């Protein structure tokens, strides 16, 4: 038995809505998980994973979802308003990423360790540069 085009459309809309809700929850959940594990404030380095996950997991995801017709938390705003919110979220993400990068550089400087000596450090620098 084939589904009608209207029924198919409702199913796809419901799936897109559920996927958007899952994206919000995963982004927030992962950021909280990292913050709990890192215990921000316990050391200078502890802020690095918190700020990076806040930037790349939460803020950038929310900036993308602002334009989703099914899962945007700001559907009532005009397109111009959503564009401004997108811009602000992306700027906040970049600031968090730069601060996270700056703190890890300061931490390595205090310990006398080499900078960008690992693939993680090199990929992180590229990610922050690309976000900029």
TrEMBL record:
Gene assigned in the entry: CYB561D2
Keywords, alphabetical: Electron transport, Heme, Iron, Membrane, Metal-binding, Transmembrane, Transmembrane helix, Transport
Keyword Transmembrane tagged: yes
EC number: 7.2.1.3
Transmembrane residue ranges: 20-38, 50-67, 87-106
Organism: Macaca mulatta
Name of protein: ascorbate ferrireductase (transmembrane)
SMART domains linked: B561 (SM00665)
First-listed, main subcellular location of the protein, grouped into a coarse class: membrane
Annotated compartments: Membrane
Enzyme class: translocase
Domain of life of the organism encoding this protein: Eukaryota
InterPro entries cross-referenced by the UniProt entry: CYB561D1/2 (IPR045150), Cyt_b561/ferric_Rdtase_TM (IPR006593)
Topological type in the membrane: Multi-pass membrane protein
Pfam families documented for this protein: Cytochrom_B561 (PF03188)
Domain Cytochrome b561 as annotated: residue spans: 14-132
Cofactor(s) needed for function: heme b
GO MF term list: metal ion binding; transmembrane ascorbate ferrireductase activity; transmembrane monodehydroascorbate reductase activity
GO CC, alphabetical: membrane
């Amino acid at each position: 038995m084939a589904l009608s085009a209207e029924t198919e459309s409702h199913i796809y809309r419901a799936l897109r809505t559920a996927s958007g809700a899952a994206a919000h929850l995963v982004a927030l959940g992962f950021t909280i998980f990292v913050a709990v594990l890192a215990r921000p404030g316990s050391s200078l380095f502890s802020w690095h994973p918190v700020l990076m996950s806040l930037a790349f997991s939460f803020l950038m995801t929310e900036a993308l979802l602002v334009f989703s017709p099914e899962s945007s938390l700001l559907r009532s705003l005009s397109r111009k308003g959503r564009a401004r919110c997108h811009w602000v979220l992306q700027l906040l993400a970049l600031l968090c990423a730069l601060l996270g990068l700056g703190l890890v550089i300061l931490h390595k400087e205090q310990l006398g360790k080499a900078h960008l000596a690992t693939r993680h450090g090199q990929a992180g620098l590229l990610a922050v540069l690309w976000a900029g």
